[in-house]
Each structure stands twice: as structure tokens, then as C-alpha cells.
Amino acid sequence: DNITNNGRLTVANVSNGDTITYLVTKDNGMPLVAMTAEEYTTYITSDNKDGNYSVKVIVTDAAGNTSDALKTFVLDTTNPIFDQQSTTINIPINVLITTIIYDAQATDLNGDADKGITYKIKNADASKFLITADTGIVTYKTIQTSTHDNDTATIVATDTAGNEKEQLITVSVKNIALSTSITWNGIGNDRIVNINEKAMATLSGTVATIGAVTGISIVDITFKQGENIVHKITSNLPSISSNNIWTLAHSNTWVSKLGNGDYTVVVNLSGNNGSISGQGITTVVTIDTVAPDQPTIALTNDTSNTKDGTITTSTLNTNDTRVYHLKKGEVEVTSVTDEATYATYMAGADEVTYTLTIVDTDNAGNVSVSSNALTFILDKTPPN
């Protein structure tokens, strides 16, 4: 890789009496003054000499004969730099050994975290922790089944040139828990979301904690049908208020993704700088936005006149309800609301013109289009 942290060069096949001259060019600039081996060593090991070098080494024997060799390299004497994330970490008891305890983030001259960096844990055999060499992910070797404080590890980040930087982390295992309630707002107790309720749907919840949990945030909100993810919200997530309440406002961005069917909602949480996670899961909620078919009505005797108002209607679906609307002339008959009250009223009704419509509502609360308007004359008088 031609990257070094000292710039020293070894010149082989040199005899007694030979002289060595170094012609040094830095960062494609003008060649520097010719140097002896001692002058070159003093120069290359002094401060602030990082850069791209081209060094031509000329060997001259006592007779004046010369030979030369060219070496190019990058001099990098700058240690990696760790980011500023907290190195004091609290995690819950009994978390899986795959749980990320700490994600070391060191940068080299290129400025990209982890690029060109190799990680290790100092005295790794005696440590409770493991680390991935290329990503800096730290995990426990075994599940921590009891609470305790101050497990420490020294992370060593080494760049391509061999420069090293150490970072001490301190991990405590606590009785910590993080969870949240989840509520579909405005859908009643039936846990069915109809078309009107979906048009105004919001979610909210209250976060609960056990132990010291700070910096709580929502990582994502996922809508699932069974085990299948229908939609996941990962941006523009709700913030959590000082009293641990959050609300997902209504937006077609997420509502439009939810068709009819049974859903659970999973809200994933993070706290303590990502070292603790938690979630809330709803019981099943059904989205049903399909209204019943438009009902139909007709007089049983199929004329515009009737002696008793007997009607024939389309079949009412199981679990649906049907509402009758009767007008006497232009005035609503408020006592008529269903089949029974309609029959009772018509038994003693006046001989005038009536108009009847019916509307069906399913158990989700979706309302059908009103039926055809049936207008008829009630005529109870027999012929002479």
C-alpha cells in the first residue's frame, strides 16, 4: 500500500566508501536540497512532514560510479481519531450476545469512519468483549445474567500506516427496560377502522421505562399483516415529549399504504445512545373500508298504491344494521327507524303520500349509499 508512519528507507548493497544521496520530492513539488542519509532521517522524522513522497536514492562509489533507485510512498504519522460518542454505556440484563454494546467510529486522514481502520481489544483474551476488526462493533462474549458496574475495554484503532489510538469504554449492566403503549385514536372499542376513521387515523402512545434511560427516540414504526411487513416508517418519526408521550399525526404518506385487512403495529425504541432498545406491539386492528352494497326497496304489490305499505327489500348482510327513513309528505316521521317501527306506524297511518328510503351500516361503521326512494300512496278504503 506504500503507506508508512516513519518514512525510513533501507538501502542495500552498499559498500564501504560509498556515499548515499537522497533527492526528495514532496507532494509533487520542487525537489528539496540533496541530503545525506543522516540529514534525510532527521528530516523525515521531524514534525509535520506527512504527505506524498518521491525519494531518489543515489549511491556513488569511490571511483565516481553511480546507481540509483526511486521509492514513492505516503507518510502518515497522524493517529486515528475516535468520534465523540459517549464511552459510558448502560445495557439491560440478559440481552443477547449479538446486541451491539458499542460501535467504535475512528477516522483516518481520509475522514471516513472505519475506512482503512483495523480495530482490536487490548488484552483481548482476558476481556469480556469481542470486536469486529473492520467495523468496530463491540459485543459481550457471553450473556450477562446479573447486574454489575464498570466492565471496561480498551479499543485500539490502527490505520493503514500503523498509527494507533486507544479508546476506553465502560459498560454497566442494569435492570433497564423500555417499552411503549400504542393506541389507534378515535376507532372506538371494536378495534375496527372504518372508512371515516381511517380518513382521520392517528397513533399515539406513552413510553414506560425501568431504570435510568435517557435519549429515548423512536427508531421506526412498522405495520404488519401476520409476519409480512406492509409499510415501515423510518423518517419524519414522532418525537417523544418530556412526559414520554408521542403522537403519529395523520398523513396519507402512511395511511394510503394500508389496505383492508388485519394489522399489528410495532414501534421500536432506542435509548442510552443506542445501547438499549425496546418496543410496543398492538393487538390486532382490522381496517375495513368497504361499505355494504346499496339496498333496494319495492312495494310488494308493485303498484304506486298500497293498502298497508308492505314492502320487499334486498337481503341484509349478517351483522349489518338497517335504518328506515320515512317521510309523510315532506315531513320526516321520526318514530320510524327500522322494520318493526315502520310496520307499527303503517298499521295506523293516514291515507296520504309517503316516501321511504333505507340505509345499511356494517359492523365497522361503513354506511351504504341510500336506497332508491320508494314513493307510494296509502289507500285503506275498500271499493264501494
Automatic annotation (TrEMBL):
Domain Bacterial Ig-like stretches: 1-77
InterPro entries, per database record: Big_13 (IPR044016), Cadherin-like_sf (IPR015919), Ig-like_fold (IPR013783)
Gene Ontology molecular functions: calcium ion binding
Signal peptide region: none
Source species, domain of life: Bacteria
GO cellular component, one term: membrane
CDD domains in the record: Cadherin_repeat
One Pfam family from the record: Big_13
Descriptive protein name: Bacterial Ig-like domain-containing protein
